[in-house]
Amino acid sequence: MDGRWRLRAAAAGIAAVVLGVGAGELAAAVLAPASSPIGAIGDALIDLAPGWGKEAAISLFGTSDKLALIVGIGVVLIGIAALLGVVEARFPRAGALSCAALGVVGIAAAVSRADAEGLAWTPSAIAGAMAAFAIGPLARRSAPPGRVAAARATDPERRWFLAWAGTATLIGVASAAGGVLLQTRARAATATRRALHLPAPARAAPPVPSGAELTVPGLTPLVTPSTDFYRIDTALFVPQIDPASWSLRIHGLVDHTVVLTWDELLALPLQESYTTLACVSNPVGGGLIGNAKWLGYPIRDLLARAAPRAEADMVLSRSTDGFTASTPLEVLTDNRDAVLAVGMNGAPLPPEHGFPVRMVVPGLYGYVSATKWVVDLEVTRFDRASAYWTEQGWSPRGPIKLESRIDVPRTGATVPSGDTVIAGVAWQQHVGISKVEVSVDDGAWQDAELATAISADTWVQWRLPWHAASGAHTIRCRATNHAGEVQTAREVPPAPDGATGWPHITVQVA
Ligand SMILES: Nc1nc2c(c(=O)[nH]1)N[C@H]1C(S)=C(S)[C@@H](COP(=O)(O)O)O[C@H]1N2
Ligand SMILES: [Mo]
User: Fold this and answer.
1) How many Å apart are CA 506 and CA 477, to the nearest integer?
2) Cβ of 372 less than 6 Å from ligand 1
3) Which spans are transmembrane here (predicted)?
4) 112 Cβ inside 6 Å of ligand 1
5) Is 216 in contact with 423 (CB distance < 8 Å)?
6) CATH superfamily placement of domain 226-392
């Protein structure tokens, strides 16, 4: 019986590594589809292999050379895993450390690729950590004879061991299979998106006015780079949509049902507009807001084709993953730049921001207007249908509230005494900002310098020179909109229709 511990330890090692690789492959599908642990090692081996090696592989395996490589990596990895199980059973922690080291090899392979994603390191990190974490408990159940008696596998424990190791292996294999499947879809969609050239706008956005962007270090940029743009949605996996198979159906209380394909949409005269999106969940002073240049087609013109009936007052937009938003019909048919967007900041929409098509509506929070991966517009009535977040108790309509934020100095910062600057942004999309005021230590409100706004549909930057005297200070701000309303001091939480209150920061002046 005692000679069998090695077999059990080897199985423990294999179970732990398979579990880790499974977790890594699944993580890759979500976080970095081009950086799967096995795929990254395979890519690195292809790069490192000498020319004659590659040729030999091709002549030996033909077009199956890549499959052969992956099978080869799998076999070698299982061999190493078996060995690590035995090592861990004999020298606790040594196997775990080696698993972590394998993870580091995967990370190095993934991040050294020329087209590595920002999160390229994560799948292998997760794989290594998972294997390192699992191998100890599994291998301890199969400790060699003569080692600490208490750690030895007794018969009932052995049954447990088989159950644990078997389950870990099965979960690992299933996650790896699922991960690989999802990665394939994600990579196909990424390749399509990369090869895509959006048409030039028929109506380009007017240039950003000079003086719209203040030069204050630390101030939020006027246009948010797409990679820094906040992301909020209910999608665990980013939907992967091939534009060729995308279409939008407009139906419900309309005279004509309209179906629009991707090619038809791109053939329409598209327009560019800057619109600041904001999330209703953004707390006062929070970062769930961003400003981008969108390329799209006016939803108003599409609705006109469908001809909504007189009784309709809402459009329920639906995404491919079932999310819905209820947008007042009047907001989609007035003259604002509510668009069916295909482009963001000069490129196709990033997958996580709705590729291939999303809605962008100036003046409304995202949950009632900014449907990503949109495929369906149902013209209906507020008293007949309700949207995803409304069913969770949020307000059915969501006009954006008048708000402002202090970006400079950072709250909690220590600032040298003397001349410095207080700066931030203010917004109430589609209404516009006419004034921002600042109060230091509850002193008198002082008018800040307001930058030129791109339009009423975007946020606007502001700044105020400040002579900072040493000590602790509290700074507040409040905005006034174009209708003359002053931002309320009343503090309410985000639910059910958006937070209000004056933002404040505290700084220490040295
Ligand atoms: N399909 C889909 N679209 C969605 C959501 C979602 O969960 N699913 N969330 C909405 C919310 S609450 C916001 S604030 C915006 C955020 O858009 P962004 O992730 O591009 O910043 O998308 C909206 N569109
Ligand atoms: Mo949101």
Assistant:
1) 12
2) yes
3) 67-87, 94-112, 118-139, 160-182
4) no
5) yes
6) Oxidoreductase, molybdopterin-binding domain (3.90.420.10)
420 forms beta bridges with 466
- Does residue 148 surpass a pLDDT of 70? no
The dihedrals phi and psi of 159, each to the nearest 5 degrees, come to -65, -40
Q: 3-state class of 78 per DSSP?
A: helix
CATH 3.40.50.880 for domain 403-509: no
| Helices vs. strands in the chain: H and E counts, helices first | 10, 19
* φ/ψ of residue 508, rounded to 5: -110, 120
The ranges assigned to domains in the chain are 2-193, 226-392, 403-509
Quick one: which of 313, 174, 186 has its CA closest to 253? 313
Asked if residue 409 has a cis previous peptide bond (ω within 30° of 0), the answer is yes
Pocket test for ligand 1, best of 227, 232, 277, 371 (most atoms within 8 A of CB): 232
Cα(184) to ligand 1 centroid in Å equals 25
- Can you tell me the distance from the alpha carbon of 120 to that of 270, in angstroms, rounded to the nearest whole number? 35
Residue nearest to atom 18 of ligand 1 (CA): 231
Residue 463 Cβ contacting ligand 1 at under 6 Å: no
Q: What is the pTM of this model?
A: 0.80
Q: Is the pLDDT of residue 445 over 70?
A: yes
| Residues 6 or more apart in contact with residue 200 via CB below 8 angstroms | none
Model confidence at 142: pLDDT above 80: no
What is the strand order of the sheet 324-328 is part of? 258-261, 247-252, 374-380, 314-319, 324-328
The answer, yes or no, to whether any atom of ligand 1 lies below 6 A from the CB of 388, is no
* 150 pLDDT higher than 50: no
